Amino acid sequence: MITTKAIVLSRKKVAESDVIINLLTRKEGKVRAYVNGARHPKSRFSSTTQPFNEGIFSLFINKDLARLSEVQLTEPHLPIRDDIDKIFLATYMMELVELALADGEAIDGLYDRVAHALVALETAQNLQLFKLVYDLKVIALIGYQPALFSCSSCGATRELTTNLSVQMGGVICQNCLASCVDCANFALDDLKLINFILNKSFRTIQRVAISDTMLLKVATWTNRFIAEHVVRRPLKSLKLLGSN
């Protein structure tokens, strides 16, 4: 048995009163766990196993499916649950991590980044910007950071254009531009925004004024990048956000 900090990524009904939860744990990465009786209103697991709850979970680890023994809820993120738009965004945040990781896969720093993001979401004002920041920071940590300083096709560091390719994963140089089948032209300020987000804190970025046009353009490309490289399937929760 292990005891670890964990965040509930999702909860799925099984049997008559049981559920399977996906957890992002600090020690074991992503873990699937069976929870007996969690759908019963009087169960001690009824409320503690809801998505984006954070707590200390005691788990019996098996090869394919762990079993939940105890849980001490430490952070229910109530300010998020009081705002329907933040509920939708938190649901998306959890789904992105769940689909990006294989069962048992652990990435250093990911737990802390997601936990910090949930706390920051409680007081966030610009949710579109917040989503973009979360997307870029999480996928960079996982290993899918868009290439901005070298050609994503040939690796060249000179004669770079401001064209971005979803398929290639970043900027394209002048020599590769003619053969790029999905290049989209961006302004230099758009690329600076991506780099700024990757290198600054949630709090700092939230204080910066960014035009809706720039935000939409970069966010749309990032959504497509994630679908192509990170999750390789549609994110169901994206429809809740009205995103492209």
CATH superfamily of the largest domain: Recombination protein O, C-terminal domain
Biggest pleated sheet: 5 strands, mixed, barrel
> How are helices and strands ordered from N to C?
EEEEEHHHHEEHEHHHH
> What count of structural domains?
2
The main sheet orders its strands as: 1-2-3-5-4
Nutshell version of this structure?
It is built from nine helices and eight strands.
List the defining traits of the structure above.
elongated, 2 domains, 3-stranded antiparallel sheet, de novo design (two linked rop proteins), 244 residues, 5-stranded mixed beta barrel
Structure in words:
The termini are far apart. 38% of the residues lie in helices and 23% in strands. The chain folds into two domains: 1-76, Nucleic acid-binding proteins (OB fold (Dihydrolipoamide Acetyltransferase, E2P)), CATH 2.40.50; 77-244, de novo design (two linked rop proteins) (Up-down Bundle), CATH 1.20.1440. It has 244 residues and is α+β, with helices and mostly antiparallel strands. The protein has helices spanning 78-81, 84-100, 110-121, 127-142, 174-177, 188-199, 202-206, 212-230, 238-241, and strands at 2-14, 18-25, 29-35, 54-60, 66-75, 160-165, 170-173, 184-185. Helix 3 packs antiparallel against helix 4 and helix 4 (127-142) runs parallel beside helix 8 (212-230). Strand 1 and strand 2 form a beta hairpin. The strands form two sheets. A five-stranded mixed barrel has the order 1-2-3-5-4.
